Amino acid sequence: MKSRxxxxxxxxxxxxxxxxxxxxxLLGHRLNRILEYTPIVFMLLYMFYYILGVExxxxxxxxxxxxYYTIMLVFSGYAFLSYFWCFSRSAYLELxxxxxxxxxxxxxxxxxxxxxxxxxxxxKAFVIATTxxxxxxxxxxxxxxxxxxxxxxTVTRPSTGWQFNMACQIAAFGAIIAxxxxxxxxxxxxxxxxxxxxxxxxxxGSRKGLLMPIVGFFLLYxxxxxxxHMMKVFKLITxxxxxxxxxxxxxxxxxxxxxxxxxxxxxxLQGTSTxxxxxxxxxxxxxxxxxxxxxxxxxxxxNAFGVYNYGNFHVDVYGRxxxxxxxxxxxxLGIVGxxxxxxxxxxxxxxxxxxxxxxxxxxxxxSIFLVSIIFEYGIVSYYIIPxxxxxxxxxxxxxxxxxxxxxxx
Length: 409
What we know:
Layout: H1 4-28, H2 33-54, H3 63-81, H4 89-112, H5 116-145, H6 153-160, H7 164-185, H8 191-204, H9 207-223, H10 230-252, H11 255-270, H12 276-294, H13 304-313, H14 325-355, H15 361-375, H16 385-396, H17 403-408
């Protein structure tokens, strides 16, 4: 008969397998809802079994995890309450499954990922899942569409079910995590997911997807610099210059992607751009501002932006979200919703910054959250399940500060 310790050891393997399979299912078969939701049912059953059996009814979250999840619950509760004043209840109901799934997965990660071995396994499972997603996209490109740059949804949606920008942004976080492991474990195997991610970013032609891992790598390197060794700073500057030069020549080989990047840069610097994508995004943000000014405190209700935008301005599916998390939240859930959602960011960033000098793994948390804050000016993340998974993983790193974690990571 197995002891309680043996059961716990087995459970570490089982819960890692379960969540790893769900990561792969979520990222690799997005169109198949049965495949996506089946693991969630098993995960809930397993969670109840573990709490009632192995832990004998005890349910505990560590301090930072408890505060993070409390904030998430309050925000989600407020979003659900917006049903009573929402502009479109059918649009509201579209997001309910995603919000509930995010709550379940976040609870799973915060509850089970409370030891260094588990959270490291979870992070590696996520890297494997993003690599799997990228390989599916690359194989689809080779077999069906042929290899060429900037294929957008043509290559990502049939192979994964995800819109190309979203697939590339999820993959970018996988590359950042892989880069952290590469720097700490010195294993060249971690270069495989990084190469796969950049290959997909170029195939799909995602500007944010290309920039996010570069910014993440830069932040990880910058956070680990010892201020007494200024030579590292000069090396960093040199690496950045080399990357920029190489990126310029790579982009010049693909005129469409080069023009998109140039249009983005001009738009950010001058406020105007000839790039059609950037112009449409600015149009959508303006409409979100228009909605916000009429209901600044409570907003129009969860997911109201897209329906209102479609009904009044006759935009296509591309205009069903604001392409900006801040203005999407302000237009749908008002100032209250924005404050509630970003309270968890403030909580985690303060905690991570306080300990990052002692625990290097906190640098990964800081990098992930800072990249999110920067690029959420161009993406909507508050109901996207994989992005909420990434934030949960990064948060859990802050509670796993045992000797093993400190020495290895």
